Amino acid sequence: MRAVSRLVPRRPPGLARALLLGLAFASLLLAGCATQTRGLLASPPADLPPRIELAHTPFVEQADFQCGPASLSMALGAAGFDTRPEDLIGRVFLPGRQGSLQIEMMAAARAEGAVAVRIPGRLDALLRELAAGHPVVILQNLSLAISPVWHYAVAIGYDLGRRELVLRSGPNRRETMALSTFEHTWARGGHWAFVALPPGRLPATATENAVVEALVAFERGARPEAARRAYAGALERWPGSHVLAIGLGNAAYAAGDRAAAADAFRAAAQRHGDGAAWHNLAVVLREMGDLGQAEHAARQAVAADGPWGAQAREELDRIRSLRERETTPRRGGGAGAR
Amino acid sequence: MKRLKRIIAMVLVASVASTGFLQTAQATLIGTEQVARAASGASDDRARIDEALARADIRDQLQALGVDPRHAADRIAALTDEEVARLAEALDSAPAGGSLIGAVVFVFVLLLITDILGLTKVFPFTRSVR
């Protein structure tokens, strides 16, 4: 495919081009097989229902070039976030490109309060999300790499018996597409897909890395309580994740719950022994007035010797000077007595 | 433009040097994004400056592509540093999903055939043989 796009522009128009297109076509015939579809249909996973359709997914008909906002609006609607596509246009649409970028699609979902997570680029993962009740936003290149037609749509179901995927796509409320055709168009879109979920819910198939990345990004603009719920839910599935543990503490702190923040940081520090958790624990304990424990945590933070050493030493100094002030009440009068 | 970048860079260097952070969620806690970045092996002030410059750069590009300046600021604020870095490199070339039918006349016949074979789905009126 790449070879074709390199060759075509260099050739003069006319017969040579027609010949080249013929060649390209022939190579497509040879190269183009939907391997994932074949494998999946040959031996479908036993736990995958043969047929799913998330019919409750709202339908938003796309205006010109607005498949991005329309798809986003549908996926968000299914997750319980009511948004109008008109409001999403300003968040994702790029007039100069007559389309929407993938990164901004996910950022806009977050801005509406949903957690947006990439799922693995495999057909079985896509179907599993559908089976779990999550509509999936996908990017297709409906055409060929030499003349791409990028298109967002929302997968809402499948039928293994009919070998079809069901989509809300463009002007079509219910578009059925052969799984193999879908696989071709999806592969040319880089197998890109994501789900938008309420905080606290997790995709059925996403990897730990994808979820961590999604939640760190979500925390950035989310209400602290929502971020806290999201981190807590993910920690249940991946209790060993260092970043999720820190995130839970930071979100609890931002929500004003210092005690819960201290618990989260303490758990993270004891489990991972890292400077960031000890440092944050020291800060929270100092603010709660527990200077003895705070100093202990700050010492651990300094000893952890990571990228946070300078901050840890600063915090330790702060706590020590506070403790000194505490142990020497009323400096003016007390000085002579000592 | 170069001058502007220099000025922005100088301001950023000063702010990074004085505070240590460009955007810490709370006064003194180490943020989750910082920890995640450190875990992935990249954490220094230089990277932060690059990313802040990239944010300014992307805002210019978004506005050049017709985005309302008010929206552009919100849109950039919604991105993580890592997303900014990725976007700054590929804003012009990244796929922009939008059209159902683009400028495909040139390869009309080819696409008609591939549509029928079920390799593509450009035209609404085609039915795949598979």
Topology:
The complex is a heterodimer of chains A (338) and B (130).
Chain A: H1 2-7, H2 15-31, H3 35-42, E1 51-53, H4 67-78, H5 85-92, E2 93-94, E3 99-101, H6 102-111, E4 115-118, H7 123-131, E5 136-141, E6 150-159, E7 164-169, E8 172-178, H8 179-187, E9 193-197, H9 208-221, H10 224-237, H11 242-254, H12 258-272, H13 275-288, H14 291-304, H15 309-327, H16 331-337
Antiparallel strand pairs in A: 1-6, 2-3, 4-9, 5-6, 5-9, 6-7, 7-8
Helix pairs in contact in A: 4-5, 9-10, 9-11, 10-11, 11-12, 11-13, 12-13, 13-14, 13-15, 14-15
Chain B: H1 2-19, H2 32-39, H3 45-64, H4 69-77, H5 81-90, E1 96-97, H6 108-117
Greatest interface: A-B, 81 and 59 residues
Q: DSSP strand (E) fraction of chain B?
A: under 5%
Shape of chain A: elongated
Intertermini distance of chain A: 85 Å
Q: List the total number of helices of chain A.
A: 16
The level of helicity of chain A is 55-70%
Average pLDDT for all residues of chain B: 75
Order of helices and strands of chain B: HHHHHEH
Q: Identify the CATH homologous superfamily of the largest domain in chain A.
A: Cysteine proteinases
Protein model, in words:
The complex is a heterodimer of chains A (338) and B (130). Chain A has helices at 2-7, 15-31, 35-42, 67-78, 85-92, 102-111, 123-131, 179-187, 208-221, 224-237, 242-254, 258-272, 275-288, 291-304, 309-327, 331-337; strands at residues 51-53, 93-94, 99-101, 115-118, 136-141, 150-159, 164-169, 172-178, 193-197. Chain A is an alpha+beta fold. Chain A folds into 2 domains: 35-197, Cathepsin B, Chain A (Alpha-Beta Complex); 208-327, Tetratricopeptide repeat domain (Serine Threonine Protein Phosphatase 5, Tetratricopeptide repeat, Alpha Horseshoe), CATH 1.25.40.10. Chain A is elongated. The model of chain A is unreliable at 1-13 and 332-338 (pLDDT under 50). Chain B folds into 2 domains: 2-90, no CATH class; 98-130, no CATH class. In chain B, α3 (45-64) packs across α5. Mean pLDDT of chain B is 75; it is low at 16-27. Classes of the chains: A alpha+beta (338), B mainly alpha (130). β3 of chain A pairs antiparallel with β1 (96-97) of chain B, so a sheet runs across the interface.
